[in-house]
Amino acid sequence: MKESKQTAVGRRGKKPRKGSRRVSHRRQNLVITSLFSLSLSMAIFSSLQNLRRSLSSSLLRKLKHGHHQAAVTGPRQFTTCEGSRPSIVHKRSLDILHDPWFNKGTAFSMTERDRLDLRGLLPPNVMTPQQQIDRFMVDLKRLEMNARDGPSDTNALAKWRILNRLHDRNETMYYKVLVDNIEEYAPIVYTPTVGLVCQNYSGLFRRPRGMYFSAADRGEMMPMVYNWPADQVDMIVVTDGSRILGLGDLGVQGIGIAIGKLDLYVAAAGINPHRVLPVMIDVGTNNEKLLKDPLYLGLQEHRLDGEDYLSVIDEFMEAVFTRWPNVIVQFEDFQSKWALKLLQRYRSTYRMFNDDVQGTAGVAIAGLLGAVRAQGKPMIDFPKQKIVVAGAGSAGIGVVNAARKTMARVLGNNESAFESAKSQFWLVDAKGLITDERADIDPDALPFARKSRELRQGLREGSPLVEVVKKVNPDVLLGLSAVGGLFSKEVLEALKDSSSTRPAIFAMSNPTKNAECTPEEAFSILGEHVIFASGSPFHDVNLGDGKIGRCNQGNNMYLFPGIGLGTLLSGARVISDGMLQAAAECLAAYMKEEEVLQGIIYPSISSIRDITKEVAAAVVREAVAEDLAEGYRDMDPRELQKLTKEETLEYVQNNMWNPVYPTLVYRQD
Ligand SMILES: NC(=O)c1ccc[n+]([C@@H]2O[C@H](COP(=O)([O-])OP(=O)(O)OC[C@H]3O[C@@H](n4cnc5c(N)ncnc54)[C@H](O)[C@@H]3O)[C@@H](O)[C@H]2O)c1
Ligand SMILES: O=C(O)C[C@H](O)C(=O)O
Ligand SMILES: [Mg+2]
């Protein structure tokens, strides 16, 4: 039965997999015979369904402003609040209950049930939205009984399942749960649990979410994008699954990361969930385990490479920007080999950015500036910081490039400042310290390669990390290596001789087990004054005597939602370095002096909606200042230009979607 199941699960119209071809004819015949009568009735049912679906989608397309947009003719966006207007629906009955965009489940009022032909299809008791949430939370919390150590325990996956089921049946309620409990559930829908979900995705897969473009769809992508039901899409997060967190190539299963990032777009940035689209571009996988796994849902072929690969990504970009010219595309978890190249290829023509390169860089800059403040030093001291970076992939390279530019700006933004700033960095990768003696050096790492003839203290090409830390005595040790435990006891001991009064450790690799060290390790070896940040969440450390070792989450989640929202609301055609810099500086400035002095250099995730609003407003203002803003809906660029800082914040706030049920009204086209 395995083969017939594979054929049924989303494989229609695609060429059969190698595994299916191996099935004997006798067994195939058996399967076909036993399923024949079932197939016949299914076929009749499914053609009826298809007819209904195509009818309703053609009706939808006739709508000028899209699925949830018909009522957008009200007062100016600037003064209205998303979610308070009625929504026009074009369905009734079960179609609504099965549609997570409009479903309210047991919260449909009796008059609405009558109006929408729902009476009798739901238990009679009408619940308030809060009662619904309460019931759901009881179920969700039941798992807590057996939980041991927070987000990393095995119950995390069970929680993800429960939340995912809610996502499938009622999006409004799902996001309400997420927004109201973001600190508790971000680690489930996002890092670290999302990593576990991606690793197990073929088994966890229930309902499809988002779009899948595969190497087998070449030449078909333009018509394919019209299969998506929404006429308006604001935000796409796309991955090719080649480097999911620090977990390597997970192929098609990487779709989970795009879904998780978009969950934060909705929860943190208030992007309307009707207008987000997670995308997986499946160009094969080089993960040998997945290539052999009979349950794997993706193409069981090695990854496309070179021009073949580029032509698929090009075709995808052309297709989505043709249908949705104003969409913003966030590239996520592409292996470093392609991440920087694709960014350069598209960034001046399309509204796109790479979160791992640019979002991470901004978050790291904010943290690095925070570490300077935590030492009680002024910003002018930032260019004096000695920074050792372990990991020279897309994330590490993104960070050193952005930090170098920031140092240069502090020093007066001239050529010589830019030139001298690069000597503050020591880049270490899997082969050790990168110097100009490195054979086949990555061109992106080249500017940061130490000159061997200038190296002192016995350092040389390939010196191990511990040697580099011992000899450089850095102020900052930053890890984007994907190697859990890389900051060993020896490395941390070496950091004791740091020239800084408060050395900073950024163990930024994800998920939890890939962190370069834990906060316990950092604080126990380096003491209470060390500044600690990690990519995945850890708890603060109790250091005894009433002292607390602060654990910060240094994750690009503090920036990408605001970068996306600010770009959307400014209508900027491209995402400039200045807009990214404005986002990073806004995050850095968000922290108060007293917090920073306590070692708190990033905000708590519970305030992520507020931070995102601030970041988005900073991005809007920078886009306006750089004359890139073309406006959004009825806010034209001239009006945008007139907004004060406070008015920009208000404009952003008023355009953020809130998880409240709109009143539904049926209207036939
Ligand atoms: N916290 C965040 O916001 C954030 C953002 C982006 C990426 N990341 C994490 O960063 C990690 C790396 O991402 P990437 O795209 O750059 O990956 P990558 O695989 O391209 O790069 C990893 C780099 O680490 C180096 N490395 C491997 N072993 C090493 C060792 N023993 N010592 C020193 N360096 C070593 C490799 O040579 C390579 O340069 C991932 O775990 C990812 O989850 C975190
Ligand atoms: O996804 C995250 O948690 C951060 C980052 O984008 C990563 O790839 O690790
Ligand atoms: Mg990422």
From TrEMBL:
Location of region: Disordered: 1-26
Residues that, per the record, bind (S)-malate: R243, N510, N555
Domain Malic enzyme N-terminal: 167-347
Compartments where located: Mitochondrion
Compositionally biased region (Basic residues): 11-26
GO BP terms: malate metabolic process
GO cellular component, one term: mitochondrion
One Gene Ontology molecular-function label: metal ion binding
Positions of the Malic enzyme NAD-binding domain: 357-624
Catalytic residues of the enzyme: Y190, K261
Residues the entry annotates as binding a divalent metal cation: E332, D333, D356
Main location class: mitochondrion
Free-text remark on how the cofactor is bound: Divalent metal cations. Prefers magnesium or manganese.
Source organism, top-level taxon: Eukaryota
Signal peptide residues on this chain, from the entry's feature table: none
Keyword Oxidoreductase on entry: yes
Record bears the keyword Oxidoreductase: yes
Cofactor dependence: Mn(2+); Mg(2+)
Reaction catalysed by this enzyme: (S)-malate + NAD(+) = pyruvate + CO2 + NADH
Keywords, ordered alphabetically: Metal-binding, Mitochondrion, NAD, Oxidoreductase, Transit peptide
Protein family according to the UniProt entry: Belongs to the malic enzymes family.
Protein name: Malic enzyme
Originating organism: Asparagus officinalis
Phylogenetic classification of the source organism: Eukaryota, Viridiplantae, Streptophyta, Embryophyta, Tracheophyta
